[in-house]
Design brief:
The protein contains 3 helices and 4 strands, in the order βααβαββ. The protein is an alpha+beta fold and 116 residues long. The two termini are 20 Å apart.
């Protein structure tokens, strides 16, 4: 793996099957516990379409909709070496499509990530 650092951003949506069904915007998890995995996937797909069409920016969507604390930074996870990132991001780098928007439909640790 490269020692080069890369910047990563994402939009995380939690759902009823999440390992920790609470977030900065839903501390008690009331909305998260009522959100199905299919609903989360549908929202991410809609966000993906908006980003790809130019209708929205990932940073703007993440700031409003992401369940991750990185929402305060528009989903920006900062700079890191790929080998220190979770498998979702490492996989994107290994396939060479990390700069394209992708939607992670398989769950990792009970969540679904949409990322750029």
């Amino acid at each position: 793996m490269s020692s080069e650092k890369v910047r990563a951003s994402h939009l995380l949506l939690k759902h009823e099957g999440s390992r920790r069904p609470a977030s900065w915007k839903d501390p008690e998890g009331k909305v998260i516990k009522q959100t199905s995995r299919n609903d989360a996937v549908a929202k991410l797909n809609a966000f993906r379409a908006d980003v790809l069409s130019g209708k929205a920016q990932l940073a703007d969507l993440a700031a409003v909709h992401s369940d991750c604390n990185s929402a305060k930074r528009g989903g920006d996870l900062g700079l890191s070496r790929p080998q220190y990132m979770c498998s979702v991001f490492r996989h994107g780098f290994s396939l060479g499509f990390f700069s394209l928007f992708s939607c992670r439909l398989k769950m990792e640790r009970g969540r679904i990530d949409g990322f750029l």
